[in-house]
Amino acid sequence: MGKIDPRVIKTRSKLKKAFLTLLSTHKLTEMNVKDLTQTADVTRGTFYLHYKDKETFIKIMMEELINEYFDTVIFNVALDDDKEELQPVLSLVHTFEYVGERPDFFTVLLKENDALVYQTAFSNQLFAYIQQHQAKNSDLSESKVPKELLMSFLTYGLLGYIDSWLVNGKIYANHFMATNLQKMLDSALIKEAGLESFFVTDATEVENVVR
């Protein structure tokens, strides 16, 4: 793959920052190209050189932010000191660090009807990592927890907990929020699904982390 022109990277970065800024005052359907280009300080022509239309741009931004979140919070941990056998874990401290930097994105993800498709994408990606984690534990293959119940509990539980933190002005520290969420996740449902070791307070403190 050829090297991307730095000017392209700079323009896309400016538009992404504009998108995140506008999320605090605009619903997804209310956002328009004029607002985006004025906030990013680029021309309409420049916008259309990079994106087909507003809908395509929003889709790309939302999917990019979801992928960025998981790239930030998922760590691979070696099994039994075997660097060839890895399982993913989700760092709750890194979750709250990322949310603190992108609060409006998570508010939109949780509360906007127009973001339901992205909630589903978020849930599906979370479930994919859960499946990878479970696959490394052969004795859990007979888990009786239905996917829809597990993912409803995890997705809305996680996003709801995050929303409460944001609504209250992030008055508690990242580590405090992560530690207490991990305690709340110590439930029969999580144990039945074999996910006690999937959610960790801080992945950087876990032994045998491989990034």
TrEMBL record:
Biological source species: Vagococcus allomyrinae
Entry GO MF terms: DNA binding
DNA-binding region: 32-51
Alphabetical list of InterPro entries matching this protein: Homeodomain-like_sf, HTH-type_Tx_Regulator, HTH_TetR, TetR_C_Firmicutes
Signal peptide: none
Name listed for the protein in its UniProt record: TetR/AcrR family transcriptional regulator C-terminal domain-containing protein
Coiled-coil spans in chain: none
TM spans (from-to): none
SUPFAM superfamilies per the UniProt record, alphabetical: Homeodomain-like
